Structure formats: structure tokens, C-alpha cells
Amino acid sequence: QVQLVESGGDLVQPGGSLRLSCAASGVTLRFYVVGWYRQAPEKQRELVARILSSGNTIYADSVKGRFTISRDNAENTVYLQMNRLKPEDTGVYYCKVGGPIDYWGQGTQVTVSS
After folding, report:
1. 49 in Cβ contact with 62 (< 8 Å)
2. SS3 5
3. Interior CA angle at 75 toward 98 and 55, to 5°?
């Protein structure tokens, strides 16, 4: 049984930083593509960053240079380090493991506001 648990969301001021975690059980993350997605109120869910099994990373243009996705194989966890946060980064952040079946976590709320 696959479980993905996101954590680390919070209320932060513009310019601040957060680190999100996606801890997995029932699946070994290093063998799959793992992505972070976000969904703002009344908007579609969008890809933020993705890490491939090779370790290569892909970012949405809106977060390039500010966000970093990484993977800890020993902890079976994928992280999203978010720096210089902006109000438009507000939303629920989800991690997804892509394979024959996609698995999603429950999401963690990030709010960027003064």
C-alpha cells in the first residue's frame, strides 16, 4: 500500500522560506519520477518541480532560481526547498509519484502573506 505524506506547509511572509517534505511508504521513490504540484484557490493544479530517477530536475518557469527539489534515498523522502516566496506561491502543495498508477499525497497548505 502506497502512502505519501506531505508536511512543512505554513504561513510565511513574502521573501521567506519553507521546506516541504514528501515521505513515502510502500514505494521506493528513487525508481520513479516524483513531482511537486500546487493548486491555488479556483485554479487548476500545476506542476512546480519534478525529479527524475536519474536525479535530473525540472522546474516551472515561475519558480526557477527560487525552488529546489531534492531526494534523500535513505529517508525515501523528496523535498521542496522554497526561497524568496511570493504571494502567488500560495496554494496547496501535493507530491505525486508517477508510474503505471499515479499516487498523490493529501497536500500541505502554503500561504504567503504579510
Report:
1. no
2. strand
3. 50
* Residue 48 pLDDT: 98
Per DSSP, the residues of 44-93 read: --EEEEEE-TTS-EEE-TTTTTTEEEEEETTTTEEEEEE-S--GGG-EEE
DSSP 43: S
Q: What is the pLDDT of residue 53?
A: 95
The upper half-sphere exposure of residue 73, i.e. CA atoms within 13 Å in the direction of its Cβ, equals: 7
Q: What is the pLDDT of residue 69?
A: 98
Residue where the block lists cell 511572509: 13
Give the separation between CA 101 and CA 103, rounded to whole angstroms. 6
Give me the phi and psi of 103, to 5 degrees please: -120, 135
Are 78 and 23 within 8 A, CB to CB? no
Low-confidence stretches of the chain (pLDDT < 70) are none
- Residue 39 bridge partners (DSSP): 92
Question: According to the model, what pLDDT value does residue 75 have?
Answer: 97
